[in-house]
Structures are given as C-alpha cells and as structure tokens.
Specification:
alpha+beta, 3-stranded antiparallel β-sheet, two-stranded antiparallel sheet, 3 helices, flat
Length: 144
C-alpha cells in the first residue's frame, strides 16, 4: 500500500534585479562638477548623496568628554571616535548621552562641543560641567 499526496502548487520565485545604486559605489551623474559637490557633501557629514541641504548627521558633531566630577578631559571629532576611546565602543550610547537621554557612559560624560571661531581658528571651550549625581531611586517597602 502506497501513500498518495496531492501535488502542492508553489509560486515561482521572481527574478530579482539588483538596484543600480547599491553594491559598489556608482555615481548618479557623469558631470565632474556634480561629483565634486557630492564628495564635498560627504566630507562635511551629509547623511546621503541625495541630501544636499547641508544637514549634518548627528554622529558627525564634535564631542567634549568629561569625567564624572565634571572636569574637561578632551574633545573628539565625532561620536565614533569618542566611543572607541572612552565610550566602551558604543556610538549609540554616546549619542544618547549627548542628546540627554543618558547621564553617562562608563566613567565619562559626553556633551556636544562648543566651538568658537577666534582670529580665523576654531577653538573649543574647555569649561567644566556639573558633576554626575546618581539618581535616587524610590524603594518601596512591603510590610505585612
């Protein structure tokens, strides 16, 4: 005695074509002036090749590093550099600290660097900040 199963219809897979702009870097245009404009935007930290409005990515801002006492330690060029050296390798946590959603990362506090221009040079303010205060959590005692 043999077991007979009805054939099951399977939808054939579509042939997928790769997107023309994915994979290796391909230029949208052959015009050298437009290419230079795009490259300048990428150097300035624009989010994508298509975004030419000049908005900087939040991860490409200079970051000031402070210890838990609020003393200035150093300034890093961007969040990734600060995360590698002082933030346990997590740029997301450093960015959350800059934006105010976290108080500290590891043994350091991070703030957006205050850059001023003086006589044609960009200088960073090295003012101390408030020391880190541990938040007091409310403890609930359950008594019978």
């Amino acid at each position: 005695m043999e077991l007979y199963l009805d054939p099951v219809w399977v939808k054939p897979k579509k042939e997928r074509k790769p997107h023309p702009l994915k994979g290796k870097h391909q230029w949208i245009t052959d015009d050298p002036e437009k290419r230079e404009h795009i490259m300048n935007g990428l150097r300035k930290g624009w989010r994508s090749k298509q975004n030419k409005s000049g908005h900087k990515s939040p991860l490409r801002v200079p970051v000031s590093v402070y210890d838990l006492d609020g003393n200035y330690v150093t300034t890093c060029l961007h969040v990734h550099e600060a995360a590698e050296k002082y933030g346990n390798g997590s740029p997301g946590n450093v960015h959350m600290c800059i934006s105010g959603r976290r108080d500290r990362v590891g043994q350091y506090q991070f703030r957006r660097a205050k850059v001023e221009e003086f006589m044609g040079e960009k200088l960073v303010k090295k003012t101390p900040i408030e020391p880190y205060k541990r938040r007091n959590r409310k403890r609930i005692l359950i008594t019978n």
